[in-house]
Amino acid sequence: MASQTSRTFTIQTQLPRSVSQGSSTMDIDYQASLSPARGPKKADPRKMVRTDYREQTLDAFIRPPSVINRCLHSHGGGPSGSGVAGKVSEAAPETNNDDELKVISVKSRLVAKRCRRKISLTSLLELKADVEETMDANLRRLLAEHKFVGCASYTTALIQHQTRLFAVDVSKLSEELFYQMILYDFGNFGICKAAEPVSLSGLMETALEFSDEPIEDPTEREAMVERAVELLMSKGPMLADYFSIQFSKDKELVGLPLLLPDYIPPLSDLPNYVARLVTEVDWTKEKECFNNIARITAQFYSFRRDFYSEAIEEEGDKAWKWTVQHTLFPAFRSMLQPGPMLHGDRTFVQLADLPHLYKIFERC
Fold this sequence. Notes:
Blueprint: H1 25-34, H2 65-70, E1 72-73, E2 87-88, H3 122-133, H4 137-144, E3 147-151, E4 156-161, E5 164-169, H5 170-184, E6 190-199, H6 200-209, H7 218-234, H8 236-243, E7 246-247, E8 252-258, H9 270-279, H10 286-301, H11 309-315, H12 318-335, H13 341-344, E9 348-353, H14 354-362
Antiparallel strand pairs: 1-2, 3-4, 4-5, 5-9, 6-8, 7-8
């Protein structure tokens, strides 16, 4: 019968395992408990970046007294602002140089500013395009991701980018920053009002007196001062509208542009600034005119040794170092588009590189 026919079946006597034959489940668990967990590969210490450029310190929120008394607190009026100027701090003492030069001081008051407007002059667009087309991407990345180390001198600061240490020229960087800010915030500046208006003729006379080639003839000097003042007054509406350089009907300087919060230029150089507006600006061509005024104003605003001459005597180095670290370098990081000229004139000088330092100390 079919029910009595023998049949053969093939069966699997051992479950499939991914380990070698002969290992039990207990052996597998025991070996896994003994083997170390494999984590991410350890970074090479020679290429390890040990700082974070995004970190902030409490020192940035504690301004020295001289900074509070001297500087402006703006809530706009710059490339990254809303175009509405803020308030001015308490009055700073009037400053005079060794030659009894009377300059503008800051008065505590609120300076109103109209809403931001867009200006699309062809000459201005061309100047902006020149900046953008010549921007150095490597320098831009360096400034955007730098870590401030400290001030080596009044014009030199140290910064770190990844594993490299650089010495940078603060004066040249600040000049280029203010030049670009003038172009990109054209016609939308805040205003720094003078506590006491300053006579344009007095500024011109001072500039001529201390020029490299002073004019000895009083009549000739007076005629030159008068022509200079008339030129500035004739260009006054344009200067006030586009650059916030304001003159009164009495032929006095009453306002300067507010380019950067917590920053006012060295006012002891004001006579030279006014004289350069008269002698070094090409008023006949629009593009050259805007470029000349922007460059001269940027040089006037650039950080220099005499920026906090009085504060240095009273507080030491604290005031100007705070301005460099917490006012200028954050602006460099967020706004400055460095061009090739900053790459070749020793504005950035590499001092050290971590992999090279390892090579040196490994031989010791």
